Amino acid sequence: MQPHKYIIPIFCLVAGISSCEQKTKQTVREKADYIVIKGKLDNIEDRASIIVDRKDYPLSLNENGSFNDTILDIEQGKVVDFWVDDYFMKLYLRPGTEIEINADVANIVESMSVSGLPTDVTINNYFLTKEKLMDKVNRQYDKEERYRIDLEEFVSEYKAVEDSLSNLLNTNTEIPEVVKKMERQDLEFYVLDALYGYKMVKDNLGTDAFAEFSKVFINFPRKYLDQMAAVAYDDFELYEYSFNYNNFMDARNYDAALELAEREGMAIELAELEIAKGIPNEKIRNRVIFNNFQMNVDQVENLTEYYNAYMAMTTEETDKEQATEIYNNFLTIAKGEPSPKFTDYENVKGGTASLDDFKGKYVYIDLWATWCMPCIAEIPFLKKIEEAYRNKNIEFVSISIDTDKAYNRWKNIVSKKALGGVQLLADKNWDSQFLLDYKVDGIPRFILIGPDGRIVDATAPRPSDPELRLLFDEVGL
Fold it and tell me: Is residue 413 domain-resident?
């Protein structure tokens, strides 16, 4: 399952996870307060982890993608999130057991297998089936084709998945009733979330991107609008569990915030806070605005105003402390501050390069990776920008954060796609000090630095965004 952009939180890493390579199965069976999780993930690019109650337990991956770890703090059977690079799915874990996961990450949905005790395998096979059925629907149509089909046909595709999985839940006696309850609700929102995506395409008719769909949408049926409008954001247990509930509610709230921002002429981030006031459940409201704060903090135009508005609204003291720390960190990369530096990054053409090498010029930095599809999608636009400003006082520097295992692929893609500008490789991928200093938690990320080495925009527009040329005009390029 690919995560929605609105609900990718920044988790606090939990240290102290010890290896279990020396423990035997008999020892594990006698020890009832932890879980052994092992296996092998071929072609993994970045990291794998288990998320338990918002705590992130990274798996200790060996060179060949194998792992053998323990997961603590699970007192009873629990559904958790299993993340591999930018993909995640649900797994069922129980203390005192051992589970083995194997997959080829290049084809993770079809290749993943889970083994362990029969009961656990039966439950996890349900989650594997769920991923395969949903993935099949997603692959049946490309992103645009999906919205060309008739609405009722569209709904029937998603309802068929819901019905198939509901039948599995009804006939599987091994799945705990509490899990069945949450899954049935998640499946309902799987259909609603898809419907809302369909409606949002309709709402964008008239723009260039969706003009060709104009004949598809005549009237969006009232029954679906009423069904979507009736959903309340008040079930914290479901909020904690369901990706689709989060997706649907966050998209609906963001849509409302966009409308409010346009109507009142206010910043979208402040409009999101205003809309969130309507969330009746205090725990959900606090979580939503904190997640939004984490995602918006590197994009908002007036950080101090946004921070003050957030602090006045949240009632969660722990979130306040974290938000204050984040806010203070981001003040160090505000406009006009000296830019953090990178030193001796490998140049694909040979030798190394440092930020100081480009002093006296504007530097437009592209942070990317070969596995990042949105990054790859920006390449044609970046090439056009590079050509348009070829004789200007600006250097285009692309920094890949690929791991050592992807080193050859990085060089091959640079060559195959004839990438221009200066092509560099970060020294420690995500853990490179330059990325840490710029608080990078997602890519692609673009940065504009002035000739004096000071920050012009720590979150500059993408090459595909017309705002980039306006920014270049503003600085006199």
Answer: yes
3-class SS at 439?
A: coil
Which of 50, 83, 106 represents a domain boundary (last residue)? Answer: 106
CA dist., res. 18 & res. 431, Å (int) = 21
The number of C-alpha atoms within 13 Å of 311 and in the hemisphere containing its C-beta is 14
In the numeric block, which tokens belong to residue 160? 């068929």
User: Which of 54, 84, 106 is the last residue before a domain boundary?
Assistant: 106
What is the average per-residue pLDDT within 191-204? Answer: 74
Average pLDDT over residues 372-380: 90
Q: Which residue has the higher pLDDT, 111 or 197?
A: 111
Q: How many CA atoms lie within 13 A of 353 on its CB side?
A: 20
Phi, psi of 457 (to 5 degrees): -155, 115
pLDDT tens per residue, range 249-294: 888 898 889 889 999 999 999 999 999 999 999 999 999 999 999 9
CATH number for the domain spanning 466: value is: 3.40.30.10
Domains in the chain, number: 2
Rg of the chain over Cα atoms, rounded to whole angstroms, equals 24
Cβ(54)–Cβ(15) below 8 Å: no
By CB atoms closer than 10 A (0-12, 13-18, 19+), residue 468 is buried
Residue 299 lies in a domain: no
Q: Which amino acid is at 443?
A: I
Average pLDDT, rounded, for the chain: 84
Is the CA virtual torsion 133, 134, 139, 140 positive or negative? positive
Strands (E) located in 53-104: 55-58, 66-71, 78-84, 87-93, 98-104
- Taking the C-alpha atoms of residue 44 and residue 46, their distance in angstroms, rounded to an integer, is 6
Residue span of the structural domain in which 77 resides: 1-106
In a domain, 19, yes or no: yes
pLDDT at 68 (0 to 100): 93
Output the six-digit token pair for 273.
């806070």
* CA 161 to each of CA 171, 184, 292: distance values in angstroms, whole numbers, following the listed order: 16, 12, 31
The pLDDT tens digits of the residues spanning 325-334 come to 999 988 999 8
Looking at residue 18, what is its pLDDT? 28
Q: Is residue 305 part of a domain?
A: no
Q: Buried b / exposed e across 420-430, counting CB within 10 Å, b at 16+?
A: bbbbbbbbebe
Q: Answer left, alpha or beta for residue 344, where phi above 0 means left and psi between -120 and 50 means alpha.
A: left
- Can you tell me the distance from the alpha carbon of 80 to that of 83, in angstroms, rounded to the nearest whole number? 10
In DSSP terms, 84 is beta-bridged to 48, 87
**pLDDT greater than 60 at residue 460:** yes
What's the pTM? 0.72
Q: What is the residue whose two structure tokens read 């053409």?
A: 349
**311 pLDDT above the threshold of 90:** yes
